[in-house]
UniProtKB/TrEMBL annotation:
Keywords: Membrane, Transmembrane, Transmembrane helix
Pfam (any one): AzlD
Name of the protein described by the UniProt record: AzlD domain-containing protein
Membrane spanning residue stretches: 6-25, 37-57, 63-96
């Protein structure tokens, strides 16, 4: 029983900080330029996450990683979902390494 209470408590402790911003942010109204800036954050984070891997995908041929990065940039420019951008870059690198 103690372990079950610990699991429920840990569940609450991790979910409360995740749910509160969702309800608070829904009520806030930002200026248009702030909304544009906030919408760029996922793509900036994506760039920071994939850039180190771009140069090390195939150490003997770094151009393959660069091409995959360019494909990711192009897909992000079209405003695709972040998941689709990542999948597009992965498929590109996969096809180039075959």
């Amino acid at each position: 029983m103690t372990i079950l209470l610990i699991i429920v408590g840990m569940c609450l402790v991790t979910m409360i900080p995740r749910l509160i911003p969702a309800f608070v942010m829904e009520k806030l109204q930002f200026r248009p330029w702030v909304n544009r800036w906030l919408s760029a954050i996922p793509y900036a984070a994506l760039g920071a996450l994939i850039f180190p891997g771009i140069m090390t995908v195939v150490p003997e041929q770094p151009i393959i990683g660069v091409i995959g990065g360019v494909v990711a940039i192009l897909l992000a420019t079209f405003g695709l979902n972040v998941v689709l951008v990542v999948i597009g870059a992965i498929i590109t690198v996969f096809l180039l390494t075959m």
